[in-house]
What does this fold into?
Amino acid sequence: MVLSRPRVTLPAMTRAAPLVCLAAAVIIWATTFVVSSTALASTSPAVLTVLRFALAAIVLVPLALRRGGMGRVFLAPITAVLGLTGVAAYYGLQNLGLLQTPAGTAALLQAVLPVATAVLAAVLLGERQSAGTVAGLVAATAGVALVASAGAHVDRGAALVVAGVLAYAIYTVLLRRLGSSPPHSGTAGSGHSDSDAVVLAAATALWGLIFLIPWLVWETASGQAGLPAGPSAVAATLYLGVVGSGGTLLLWTYGAAHTPASLAGIVTAAIPALGYAVAVFAGEPATWGKTAGGFLAVAGVLIATYAATRSTSGTAPSPATSSPLGHRDQGRAELLPDPGRDAAPG
It folds into this structure.
């Protein structure tokens, strides 16, 4: 079966807009580890994850319905895969991991994302990496290993967080694949046509909820379900749902679809450093192992970022797509992907 691939668009934006969206999502994500730990003090992981995306859906679905095409996008098989990897697996495993590992550790382990995304992009999309990018990713991997094994043992919670990050790497590569598809590339009979980031984000959130419901049912039946208790837990849950889930899902869906997958993953370099800094500021004790591993991971990703940026800037855009605006679709200006961005680095 061939997966139909929706086209991701937003109203007319500048060529820098995708990176701005990715950066905004990263800054928000960096705050969510500590906020999630606060909520998990009284809220069970399945309840928190479902509440996050129920709130996100409440925000996104009405916006998507006004834009049209929600039914076609929701029924596309690839949208279900996005909901499984980018919502259910990533956030569910992260919440389970946060029950057993500190927020700062979970933040530092996000350095796995650019590594995993670059590898998957090379295998699935043919995005080639320069020697500098590879060297940086190797250093980042070593730093992540040091963080995960701090204390001379592998943290089970850290393993769960890493598993979730690997799922999100798949999600990021799939989004880039959607952004690289030509307009109206859906398979015959799929009922799927061009889509925009709002619609795709809303449909992804709904699919994530569908995959999370069985976990919630099991947690409730086993007597382990717990609702947010107290003002801080309620505020944390609202922030995670509206801003940390709905907002970032929209920002990342658009940004990753219009950015090379390897570069989109590299933009996440700020998550480990910012997230760990927020956790330490909130009172989590810093350790030499985690701090050293974090510095090594961030340094490696920054090296990879520099190498990838130089490679990308050295690629000439195609004359046909040098304008940031492409054709119009139902009155909305669409950003066409630049074939040069997916070519081998020069």
Observations:
- The chain has one domain: 17-311.
- Residues 17-311 form one domain.
- The longest strand covers residues 328-329.
- The two ends are 35 Å apart (CA to CA).
